[in-house]
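To the wet lab folks,

You asked to see what we're planning to order before we commit. Fair enough. Below is the target structure as tokens, and below that is the sequence we designed to fit it. If anything looks off to you, flag it before the synthesis order goes out.
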């Protein structure tokens, strides 16, 4: 019998990966959002597909944690958007939760016992006003908004506290093409760019299924090329990292937190330690922010080989790094092109998407035998899995730093140095 819609009291235990805390009720596991460890809450079941667990929202707090504060986000509470999982917790509590989740993933998946500290990024402030890149949906009435948690429904409410001041100004006053998406970028000079991405045809599976297959179909559709209309700004964002300027497509990838790119670049430069004249690889390189730092280290006599699947990113990166002939940025899917990549690297920098690198990519790196790998990951589970895969090739996690790059959410950025 399904518990969908049932309400019951449950004592919350440790946090789980995904923005919830774990409770138990009548022998079943309950994943409860909007609560905190140790709290007694009234949980309303929001999803129950049978089996050993169900999902719920904490709709009433019976016994509150000392770490609870009034929620900063009015959009993401029970039944709302998925943008701010932990806006009801103090920043230290949020970071402790993320540290606990990362440590648990490393122990369980990679068999590594490690005390984890999640660091604050500069210019985080009180946890709001840090995000410079936002992707919005447009509902059937032409209103901009955000997706309801685990749903394709659009909530036409732009009061999320994450974006930098002014990023979403006046967007609710305009009518947009139904089904479109809006990409908002506030660049390093403070200029705002708003680009409307036209709707794309979604397969019947994407339209009809609310499960994983439907989500995958909708993601695939969203990644296909489509018409872009610049509504505000030039559509070309100007960014500066380590004294070098990039001009990038506002719809392309750039770190969301205003200081993340510089912070990660500095860590990569410190840990890469590429010898002069050596070869370095930058995988999933984007516009080459890390490749630039490797180029500084290997010098004119060295070589940096960078791989990125986005042609636009490679073109923008090649323009920004035109004065560094030792850098070669190439278009290609890393898992396909890596075996043919030239050179024997002394160091590899790799920043894969949320799903991580996976066995084929890690194995290809291990076979080339670099002494150092700097691995960046924005998902604790896939990061821990990749660390375990490196261990199969003789690498150990020599250094680890974790950053609260996404305050108010459950996400955390991990950077590891693997050596052998």
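Sequence we intend to order:
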């Amino acid at each position: 019998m399904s518990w969908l819609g049932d309400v019951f009291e449950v004592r919350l235990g440790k946090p789980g990966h995904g923005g919830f805390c774990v409770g138990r009720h009548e022998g079943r596991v309950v994943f409860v959002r909007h609560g905190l460890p140790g709290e007694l809450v009234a949980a309303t079941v929001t999803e129950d597909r049978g089996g050993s667990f169900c999902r719920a929202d904490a709709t009433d707090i019976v016994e509150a944690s000392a770490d609870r504060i009034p929620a900063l986000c009015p959009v993401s509470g029970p039944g709302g958007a998925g943008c701010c999982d932990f806006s009801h917790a103090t920043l230290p509590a949020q970071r402790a939760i993320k540290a606990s989740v990362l440590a648990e993933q490393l122990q369980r998946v990679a068999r590594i016992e490690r005390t984890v500290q999640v660091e604050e990024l500069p210019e985080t402030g009180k946890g709001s006003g840090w995000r410079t890149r936002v992707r919005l949906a447009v509902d059937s009435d032409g209103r901009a908004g955000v997706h309801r948690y685990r749903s394709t429904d659009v909530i036409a409410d732009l009061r999320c506290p994450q974006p930098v001041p002014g990023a979403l100004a006046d967007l609710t006053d305009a009518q947009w093409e139904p089904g479109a998406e809006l990409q908002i970028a506030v660049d390093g000079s403070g200029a705002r760019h708003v680009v409307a991405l036209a709707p794309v045809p979604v397969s019947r599976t994407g339209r009809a299924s609310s499960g994983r297959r439907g989500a995958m179909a909708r993601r695939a559709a969203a990644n296909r090329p489509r018409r872009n209309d610049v509504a505000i700004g030039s559509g070309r964002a100007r960014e500066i990292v380590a004294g070098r300027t990039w001009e990038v497509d506002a719809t392309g990838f750039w770190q969301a937190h205003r200081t993340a790119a510089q912070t990660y670049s500095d860590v990569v430069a410190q840990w890469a330690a590429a010898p002069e004249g050596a070869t370095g690889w930058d995988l999933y390189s984007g516009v080459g922010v890390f490749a630039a730092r490797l180029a500084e280290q290997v010098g004119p006599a060295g070589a940096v080989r960078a791989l990125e699947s986005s042609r636009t990113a490679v073109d923008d990166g090649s323009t920004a790094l035109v004065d560094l002939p030792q850098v070669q940025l190439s278009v290609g899917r890393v898992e396909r092109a890596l075996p043919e990549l030239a050179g024997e690297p002394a160091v590899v920098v790799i920043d894969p998407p949320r799903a991580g690198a996976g066995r084929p990519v890690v194995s290809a790196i291990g076979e080339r035998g670099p002494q150092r790998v700097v691995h960046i990951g924005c998902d604790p589970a896939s990061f821990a899995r990749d660390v375990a895969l490196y261990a199969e090739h003789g690498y150990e996690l020599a250094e680890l730093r974790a950053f609260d790059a996404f305050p108010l959410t459950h996400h955390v950025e991990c950077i590891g140095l693997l050596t052998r």
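Structural context that might help your review: Residues 276 and 296 are 9 Å apart (CA to CA). The chain has nine helices and 22 strands.

Thanks,
Computational group
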